[in-house]
């Protein structure tokens, strides 16, 4: 067994991007450094398979928006007419919801196929996270409303 082994260190110093100015400090300009440029926006795929993939932007966005529309509509009609969710669907609510669903789906898909991401349009209050959370709660709300009205045998709001 050797008593000691040599240690090799390799230094990989980067070259200075700006050459040093040989002028004296009193003649140097005191301009502040400019901030680095913002990162380039992430390229969004506009392929049909990518948009509609399980982890793509379309499924949860469209389902969440339709659930929000359905939940608010169901509660509104129930308050106005006293009909439960199943009575609403049985008395002509299906064609109205299908028409609205097609309209919302097309309106949601147009920006996605143009390559516009939801994140680029996100603001403080109207954020992507808020829309996703509201959509998920609306999905749960519709299921809970339908289940409760089925078990109760009538409208949730009387």
From TrEMBL:
Entry coiled-coil feature ranges: none
Native organism: Picea sitchensis (Sitka spruce)
Ranges for region Disordered: 1-42
Biased composition (Low complexity): 20-32
InterPro entries for this protein: Chloroa_b-bind (IPR022796)
PANTHER family, sorted: UPF0041 BRAIN PROTEIN 44-RELATED
Entry protein name: Uncharacterized protein
Pfam family, one: Chloroa_b-bind
Alphabetized SUPFAM superfamilies for the sequence: Chlorophyll a-b binding protein (SSF103511)
Family: Belongs to the ELIP/psbS family.
Keywords: Chloroplast, Membrane, Plastid, Transmembrane, Transmembrane helix
Main location, first listed in the record: membrane
Cell compartment(s), UniProt: Membrane; Plastid, Chloroplast
Topology in the lipid bilayer: Multi-pass membrane protein
Record's GO cellular component terms: chloroplast; membrane
């Amino acid at each position: 067994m050797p008593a000691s082994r040599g240690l090799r260190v390799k230094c990989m110093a980067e070259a200075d991007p700006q050459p040093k100015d040989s002028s004296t400090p009193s003649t140097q300009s005191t301009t502040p450094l400019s901030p680095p440029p913002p990162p380039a926006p992430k390229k969004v795929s506009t392929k049909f398979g990518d948009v509609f993939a399980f982890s793509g932007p379309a499924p949860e966005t469209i389902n969440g928006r339709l659930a929000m529309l359905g939940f608010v509509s169901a509660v509104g009609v129930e308050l106005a007419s006293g009909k439960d969710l199943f009575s609403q669907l049985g008395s002509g609510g299906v064609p109205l919801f299908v028409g609205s669903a097609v309209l919302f789906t097309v309106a949601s898909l147009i920006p996605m196929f143009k390559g516009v991401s939801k994140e680029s349009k996100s603001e403080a209050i109207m954020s992507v996270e808020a829309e996703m959370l509201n959509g998920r709660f609306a999905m749960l709300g519709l299921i809970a409303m339908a289940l409760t009205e089925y078990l109760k045998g009538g409208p949730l709001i009387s």
